[in-house]
Protein: Aminopeptidase P family protein
Amino acid sequence: MSEVHAVRRGLLRDRCAAAGSAAALVSRPANVRYLAGGAPPGAVLLLGPGEDVLLCPRAPSGESGHGRPDEALRVDVLPVPDGDPVVAAAGLAAASGADSLAVEEHDLTVARHRAMGKAAPRLLLVDLGFTVEQQRIVKDEEEIGCLRIAAEITDQALGELLESILVGRTERHLALELERRLVDHGADGPAFATSVATGPNSGQGRHRPTDRRVEEGDFLSVRLGASYHGYRCEIGRTFVIGTAPADWQIELYDLVFAAQRGGREALAPGAAYREVDRAARHPLESAGYGEGLQPWTGHGVGLEIEEDPQLAPTAMGKLDACVPVTVEPGVHLPGRGGVRIDDTLVVRPEADGGPELLTMTTKELLAL
Structure:
């Protein structure tokens, strides 16, 4: 991967040069990892004007969750443990002869930005914007391979849970067990806080598990994902506990399933973000559930669980091939519960078989 990271840094360096800046400072953790291969928490990456330098508050440990820095990078560990790497980077850029430095203003606090200005008063700080985030949207096959393994781990963990006894157990306990199973199967850890929602809590997009116990006849909705070598996936499924589902549960499930299928089938290179959103949203709005829907029906995934692009009604842009995204419509009926179905897929052209589904757990409405 050393050559891959060097190429990524080269692309960023070329874009900065075209904008008139000979040096760039990358501080957002996911962007640092993307360009450096790995870094301890708090590290920043300085590109040019001389050599590229990874400035770290502490020496890299080599932990799998943090990755390993590209061997071609110079690694500087700050002599003072509580020093700020961005301030040190500003001083280093100025000492190397840079007259301007592109920084990620969206990641820096005002206090840190001011501290950089004081450390290098003659250095012009300009905004790098979301250049690295845009560069990260299209994934190479090695990145997609990591996502594929993350999805396999996630499917394994969820599949094992579905084979256990669920009635009487709390949402909180089930969420903790799922996260343990992710790690047992090789994940760095959970990609995000696992959500388990039962009965009237089911179907909510960001439900935090409680001490409510699983009961017969409940909808049980689960949302989880593994992180593998930093790459994160997402799956969401809804089941019925104990008995055959009621008519209203079948009807609601079939509706959300149709919406999710519509979104999946709309994924193609050149498809507008808003059109994919509409394909998943329209069936739910037509059935009268538009008011309570979340603001998007999908998003990109990678080194962060929510990346560009956003599949939303007002989103601008079109999909490219090799962009991994989620499709995750859901309906929640207050006091009754609801349904969520989430998948992670990779956009592929029709000639390559269309969208590649990474999360394989069945979407059949199972009674557990």
In short: The radius of gyration is 23 Å. The longest helix spans residues 141-162. The chain is about 35% helix and 20% strand. The chain has a mean pLDDT of 94.
